[in-house]
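Methods — Computational structure assignment.
A single polypeptide chain was analysed. Its primary sequence is given first, followed by the predicted tertiary structure written as structure tokens.
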Amino acid sequence: MNREIREILPELVKEIHELILDDTDDKELKMKKKQLIGEAAISFNKFSNATFIVPHEKVLMERAFLKAYYLLYDSEALFYFSSFYYAYRNIKDKDLFEQQKTLIKTNLDTMAMLLKVLAVRNNYASLGTSLDNCFFERLERCIWGLKYIIKEEEEELYIPGLYNICNLHQTLIQYLKCGDSKYNDLVSANIEQLQYLLTLYKQNNKVGAILAENLQLKMFLESQIFLYSELTGKIYKFETSLDNLESLNSEQKLRVLTSLFVIDKELFIEKFESIIMGLIERIDYMNSLQKILLVRVIGDYLTYKDEKELIEFYLEEPFEKIDIVDYMTATFNGYSLIDTVGITNEDLDLLNSLDDQDLRSKVSEVIRGADSAELLRESRKPHGVSEISDMEVKTRYRGKRIFLCMPFKSGKEIKSRSVPVEISYQIVRPFIEFNKCVVIFVTAKRCSENLMNYIKKLQEKQDWPIGVIEERQLAALLRFNNKI
């Protein structure tokens, strides 16, 4: 089975990656297409901690996630979450078409906040803007509208109402896990309101009949009850029958599996393995959404099984071509002359005696075309989970502003004779954040053959502007500038 998954996954991921890149620059997309891109971003986010993805493709998937997040979390489209503000009025006073349109928009806007929360969780964003405030403050008005549906028995709206409740609940639960605490009180109060609403809906006989026939919606609801029980320490017992899973269509099966992964991961593995071959056989008949959901459950499966054997997806995204040697010559004083500098073993010993901050400080003093105050600040900044690179500074090169990102490895940090390939993600990570940047890897020890081959591959096949200043080159650069 793993062989079949490894055969089909690259093509699926590549197709979804292209779907995101093709449309994220278009602000005029219709809601349905934005919803699809949001689903794709959520699926890619499932791979954020995967150990089976090559580092530069993890970067490309994270870039795609951020493009989707920026598309959906757009201040003009969200307009201070006005869909929430007018939700109650529209559901109460408008005709069925306008009511349904309102619930589609509130659902899409909830997805936008979910993407932001996931971006915060991955240290790509922070919360606290006026737009963020509007989501949390106006959420209550949306809940009023969802309550009106069940109180006034607006039967045609039961299904979109339940999806809105579950998506809101899911987003608020994710908020509590993202590390931010600004809105904790509001979030906790609204989670209680949503749980109360779920109880009201479940007590309705017609809703019960809908859930009995709609396993994917029932499982989504159950997953939210499970998350609430986890949050509150209450006992949860999963009693939903999955006997008719085989009879569902592809999208329904995949939605059920997505919710089951939240509730019971071992049962998820069992059910996944029982139906995955049938799903793979139907790939040629799947639409974009079904493929996105298939990638999501495969990501859940491989991550939970702790898959470590690398899978290459052959993703591509064009970057502006930069002559890296010319850039390094223009940026590092004396770089073109380092081959003329004689280096002794004593010089190498001195280089290897420098710790991370000493090395950053000395290298910052040989950089041209950057602000001296920024160089000083970056050379002294403490390391943290949110940093893009050990140093990142704005430089001027041939009339353009380019971010120079520099990961460092000191001789004190690397105890082996060479730098292993396992640190390569640290080198490529800056490309997640920047479109115009150059990465120069600065290391007191030489790169291992595997690491250098990987960097050369990125330079040649992807045109990524990555340079290396290693060992003797670094010693010569510092020696030329009288820094050692």
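Note: The chain is about 60% helix and 5% strand.
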